[in-house]
Design goal:
With about 800 residues, the protein is an alpha+beta fold. It is built from 26 helices and 20 strands.
């Protein structure tokens, strides 16, 4: 519930010729996350992507499919496709993919041509006022032609007066053309600079620029028609083939992952070994499947190095006979390949080595002089087919496994397991919010379920309007009916939005607010609106409901006084709760925001305490997180008593002062010893860090601030719009109806603005309170997402 899936380490080894079969089985299981091999040693390297006819065909086809998929909006609304049907598409669908690529090429080429023609059209329109044929503007030996745009074209004659006999000048509003012999080019350029002329590049062609511009415009129109018709054909193609395109891309992506995955495994001349992670709950199934195709399969539950003790910390190394480790070192030292060594010890040239031959080999290599009863278990450990002898692949697999295994010095660099969420359907949508700050570190608290409870709750407490909440729910349902909503990610997003709307309705009912109005009728006394209240329609069913709720939902007097929500002279009514009216609920809204913040941070620190205790022990947990709990409780109670008038701020309150000062002292110890600040750093930073907790707590006042601001924005629509609409109706006549029309526009505009702001602003602030103030107390988002080979199948049946 509050943890990610437990992971186990999977080790698989087999002959090289079995590599594709093993990797294909891993992909079909859809739960094998292969860890990239990185312990490079002599004789062991990473594999190369498979270069078979099937691999090359898959890669080429996938490139085409992705090119089409990235350019169109293809959505599979018809459900997954059978695997056999997806396989057939590799051959049968290629011509259709080529058709789509041809459409795309036509559109892109036309768009490129249009861009070029538009630039040419702009130039021609600039040249049109000169009415000089294009062929006369260049291409003459010994003659230079300059054309420039200038706002001072009317002064061209006076500027060029000194050269009037040496040049041919033609000007029109905004443009100047000058022809001269080469020897006068520099003088002409100086004059053009004096006019502030900007050079115009003359396009190739003949005839009048105006006629040419008209011709270019016709070409642009023809190309735009081509784009429109081609796009229409492409859209029709997508309508017919969307399901096939999506399914084929998923199938080819999985196939491509299989063909390229050898680059993740350790490979020698005869064998390969892969290191992977699988969910512990599926280890039995994975092992039984892989044992059918691999020579060696081992699964072991992950143990955090922080929790390992003594000889158990590196038990993997101790499972390997030291003689085999020494033999591996001997081959590396003598630069012998496994093949060379095997040929030298295969005395009868049978292709297999028995116990006697292996005993003599160890003795000749000065590895060990073992008696037969000790050689037997070594041979048995390498004898994967159980025939009592060792063949070349079996020897290579055993030595490859040893070389691929990290040494004891490398254990601190070993990767931690990837993170796989393990939530129910109700909680899964809120994994989206957790992923925004990274997957949790393995073995720590997974907060999706708590976020499911608190994020919509805080969002609704901020917006708190049942009218806007109903709009959000309707919006989520409408978006959920769209074709793109079949995507699991979109479905999760719509679910989160729907929960936000539901809690907004709940809080809106508590606040008696809907579309900015107060609906409980309690704002009127003898028909007169109370000061500080907003005008709202008087609907009998709502006023009756809130009249009943006013008498039923009353906080017990003792609890209200304890929480500072009332002084005992007036009962604290929990519904309707007028949060935006001073003297009628605003002060209590502030208090509730602070109480929520203290409780939320307290829960975060408790979770952090449990995390640290699990990883480093009780002492570290007490000084790192327990100190903050003491500071939070002690500091909060001191401030509470001061605000409620029970004590002066600096008055001694024995219990709470002990907690606060003791917490600061423990924090100094935690910073000095467990956080590595040293005593000087701890003494300096401890008291300073305490103010950070105060800032975190007061940050929850944004619930009140943003909530009241939203109420006041909606109130603008009522004051400027709704009230004037009613006045216009009462006034009647043309002026009254014009007032109604204008104020209706104002009312709707402000309401839409308030709704848009209500979706955006409370979401941002609710997210900040979770990601910064709360999760900062316990969350480590350094985890890696679990990514099984081949991914998870969504559009092709039978892939997993």
């Amino acid at each position: 519930m509050f943890a990610t899936a437990e992971m186990s380490r999977l080790t698989v080894a087999a002959p090289v010729d079995k590599m594709e079969e093993v990797l294909r089985m891993c992909a079909s299981l859809s739960c094998v996350h292969i860890e990239e091999y990185g312990h490079f040693q002599d004789g062991i390297g990473v594999g190369r992507a498979l270069s078979t006819e099937g691999a090359n065909k898959t890669s080429a086809m996938l490139t085409k499919v992705r090119a089409v998929s990235s350019s169109v909006q293809a959505i599979n609304t018809d459900g997954p496709m059978p695997l056999n049907e997806a396989k057939k598409l590799v051959d049968s669908f290629e011509s259709k993919i080529d058709d789509a690529l041809a459409y795309l090429d036509t559109v892109r080429d036309s768009e490129s041509s249009i861009a070029t023609l538009k630039e040419q059209h702009q130039v021609l329109e600039r040249l049109a006022p000169l009415d000089i044929p294009l062929e006369l503007m260049g291409g003459f030996d010994g003659l230079e032609v300059y054309v420039g745009e200038t706002a001072r074209a009317s002064k061209a004659k006076s500027v060029f007066s000194a050269l009037s006999s040496e040049i041919l000048l033609h000007s029109a509003p905004g443009i100047v053309a000058v022809a001269c012999q080469t020897q006068h080019a520099a003088e002409v350029q100086i004059c053009l600079a004096e006019l502030g002329a900007k050079a115009v590049q003359i396009p190739a062609g003949e005839g009048s620029p105006a006629k040419k511009a008209s011709s270019v415009l016709s070409e642009i129109t023809a190309l735009e028609n081509t784009i429109a018709s081609t796009q229409e054909a492409l859209d029709a193609w997508v309508g017919r083939n969307a399901r096939s395109l999506v399914a084929l891309e998923e199938y080819l992506t999985r196939e491509d992952a299989i063909y390229t995955s050898p680059t993740l495994v350790a490979v020698s001349d005869q064998a390969f070994a892969l290191d992977a992670w699988v969910p512990t709950s599926q280890t039995g199934m994975v092992a039984s499947k892989l044992e059918k195709v691999a020579s060696h399969v081992a699964v072991e539950a992950y143990v955090d190095p922080h929790h390992a003790h003594g000889d158990d910390e590196h038990h993997e190394t101790h499972e390997v006979a030291k003689e085999l480790v020494m033999l591996s070192d001997y081959l590396l030292r003598t630069k012998q390949s496994v093949f060379q060594f095997f040929k030298s010890i295969d005395l009868d040239d049978s292709g297999k080595v028995d116990s006697y031959e292996f005993q003599q080999a160890l003795k000749a290599a000065n590895v060990a002089d073992l008696p037969p009863w000790d050689v037997g278990p070594l041979v048995k450990a390498m004898d994967l087919d159980g025939d009592g002898q060792i063949n070349l692949p079996e020897l290579d697999i055993s030595l490859t496994m040893i070389r691929a295994m990290p040494s004891e010095d490398d254990h601190h660099d070993e990767p931690t397991p990837p993170i796989e969420f393990e939530n129910g359907k109700t909680t899964q949508p809120f994994e989206l919010l957790v992923d925004l700050v990274g997957r949790p570190k393995y073995g720590t608290f997974e907060p999706s379920m708590l976020i499911m409870m608190t994020f919509p709750f805080i969002y609704g407490m901020i917006l708190g309007d049942f009218g806007y909440g109903a709009v959000l729910v309707a919006l989520s349902l409408w978006l959920g009916s769209k074709p793109f909503a079949v995507d699991p990610l979109a479905q999760k997003g719509m679910t989160v939005l729907r929960w936000m709307g539901v809690w907004c309705i709940i809080w809106g009912i508590i606040f008696a607010e809907g579309f900015g109005f107060v609906w409980d009728g309690s704002m009127y006394v003898d028909g007169v609106l109370k000061e500080g209240y907003r005008w709202g329609p008087d609907i009998a069913i709502l006023t009756s409901f809130y009249g009943w709720a006013h008498d039923v939902f009353v906080m017990p007097e003792s609890l209200a006084v304890l929480l500072g929500l009332g002084d005992g002279s007036h009962p604290f009514v929990m519904m309707p709760f007028h949060r935006a009216s001073a003297g009628h609920g605003l002060e209590q809204y502030v208090s509730l925001a602070v109480y929520l913040g203290v409780f939320h941070i307290f829960v975060g620190l408790i979770i952090g305490f449990l995390n640290v205790n699990k990883a480093h022990g009780m002492a570290a947990a007490f000084f790192e997180k327990g100190s903050w709990l003491m500071i939070l409780v002690g500091g909060f109670m001191i401030c509470r008593n001061f605000v409620m008038g029970y004590n002066e701020l600096f008055e001694v309150q024995l219990l709470w002062n002990i907690l606060l000062l003791g917490g600061i002292a423990c924090l100094i110890v935690g910073l000095a010893i467990y956080e590595g600040f040293g005593w000087a750093g701890g003494i300096i930073m401890g008291p300073i860090e305490t103010f950070g907790l105060l800032a975190n707590t007061l940050s929850y006042l944004r619930i009140m601030a943003v909530g009241v601001a939203g109420v006041k924005i909606a109130e603008v629509s009522i004051i400027l719009g709704w009230e004037n609409i009613l006045k216009g109706i009462e006034t009647g006549g043309l002026s009254g109806y014009l007032t109604v029309a204008l104020c209706a526009v104002i009312f709707l505009f402000v309401q839409v603005f308030a709704l848009a702001l209500g979706i955006l602003s409370p979401t941002i602030h609710a997210a900040r309170l979770h990601f910064v103030e709360w999760m900062g107390k316990f969350y480590d988002g350094s985890g890696r997402a679990f990514a099984p080979l081949g991914g998870r199948s969504l559009h092709v049946e039978g892939q997993s």
